[in-house]
Amino acid sequence: MIKQLLTATMLLLVSMCSIAQSNKAEPWYTATTVYQIYPRSFYDTDGDGIGDLKGVIEKLDYIKASGFETIWLSPFFSSPQMDFGYDISDYRGVAPEYGDTAMVTQLITAVHAKGMKIVFDMVMNHTSDQHPWFQEARKSKDNPKHDWYVWQDGKGKRPPNNWKSQTGGSGWHYDSVAHQYYWASFLSFQPDLNYHNPEMKTAMLDNLRYWLDKGVDGFRLDIFNSIYEDSAFHNNPFALKVVPSETNPNGFFQKMKYTINHPQSFAFANELRAVLEEYKYPPRFAVGEVFGSHEVLRQFMGEGHDGLNMVFLFEILDFKFKAKYFCKVLQTFEKEFPHPYMPTYVFSNHDRKRSISRMDNDTRKAKLLALFQMTARGVPFTYQGEEIGMEQAYIPLKQAKDILAQKYSRIPQFIANMSSESLNRDECRTPMQWDSTTSAGFSISSNTWLPVNNNYHRINVAAEQRDSNSLWQVYRQLLQLRKSSKALQSDTITVLKKMPKNVLAFQRSNAGETYTVIINFSKKRKNVDGNEGSLLYSIGNTKLQTDQIELGPYAGLIIKSN
Ligand code: GLC
Ligand code: MG
Fold this sequence. Notes:
The chain is of the alpha/beta class. It is built from 13 helices and 21 strands. It has helices spanning 53-58, 60-66, 101-113, 132-137, 198-213, 263-277, 294-301, 323-336, 363-375, 403-407, 413-418, 461-466, 471-484; strands at 34-37, 70-73, 77-78, 90-94, 117-122, 151-152, 172-175, 180-183, 218-221, 285-288, 310-311, 344-346, 379-383, 494-495, 503-510, 513-520, 526-529, 533-539, 542-544, 548-551, 556-561. It has an eight-stranded parallel sheet with strand order 11-10-9-5-2-1-13-12, with helices on one face. A five-stranded antiparallel sheet has the order 14-15-16-21-18. Helix 9 runs parallel beside helix 13. It binds alpha-D-glucopyranose and magnesium ion. Alpha-D-glucopyranose is lined by residues 83, 86, 123, 186, 222-223, 289, 350-351.
């Protein structure tokens, strides 16, 4: 997305804070850890070069052994795959290359049998233009399904108003059968549903109930900002902003007042939560893909904590590998999203540049990022392959399978290469690297839907499981530690002051147990005064002296107070 071109947002300095502890039992999802699977690229069991649901089932032991507790599965529903599943043509059906409904049920059962949870990816804002609802809707203005989508007459030969899509250009598309324009927040084959229509809304919420009844533990909600748009179709006001950012979705010279973060979308978050609350054993949760100011994010979660259980805090994708940056992030999130809000920590996904490639592909840095992510107060999200340090591939725009990248393919490649974010989402979606055999063990076929990164002989699961010093081992150990420690799951975090330059330190405590996390973000050795505890975990070279802690370059540790 264009917003990916942006460099980091500067955060305001805020004072440190620690939050009083509550004794109320928290729902399971506030303490969970999430592993995102992009099924197309995870594991192919039938040799067609495309990952499948059976592949997910076969790799559950790996996910469990890594220590993740919840799986977020990107869409596997029936779809023409124009946007690889983010264009759904049947919310209850399964795309044949992935499996069938029985396989989904088997997957849910297998996940639960391992004591894990699974959430699905719900694309509620739009359907595929191949969805039977849209096929009906476009037949005529009087068709009962017509109002299920957002239609308007054009102004002569021009679109109904000035609304721009999130990918640039007008979001209105003329349909020659309906003789009207339909609205699409994202790409033209993804027509927006009309949430002002109560029948459609009920039908969509029933789709959620369908999967909840089958035992799914919740949902990741795709572009939830765009659910509602203004029913009076006012023009969006002018704004002197070209590129949308994580905290401000305005762009393309428009304030997206009438198309993004509409107040009715906040109210809808509460309605959706009420549907989730119909299911109590176990409780279910939703995490929203939303962009906006902290206030907007809070509104999605509900002022009374009765909206989405969590939202992604995407601003952290623009992180700087510096203690000061992470210190500020912790302080900001604690101030803006204090308990019972639950921050989320996400550094990559199927749309964004791989996290290790934001850190010069340096494994030492990736280990410290994991240390931060797994010990801060919040729910960590890890994207498949991140735990083994899979790197961003290089795939020229002109060869892209990603339709969004194809849209940008007229941008000269050398300009695209200068961008800090990738314009080609294929680059973060290359097949999971399992071992050093054909196609990195992803498929028996050497003809995989996206090329395997040719560094797979060096970077793969099997190699990292053998190497006691690998990134994967760090993930596994940290996840294990987090699971067994009430302090690391607690609702408090205290940032420690007076640290040497480029050193971050914070504490997590619960019922008299205190863990101190210290991270040296620099390539220089650092000494930190004090030490009243024992070493619980360390990365890099560290040494505990009687009154001093020594940290080598890019070293980090966890101390348990005596
Ligand atoms: C979200 C998804 C992305 C998809 C888009 C449209 O941003 O993460 O992959 O293309 O929505 O559904
Ligand atoms: Mg919409």
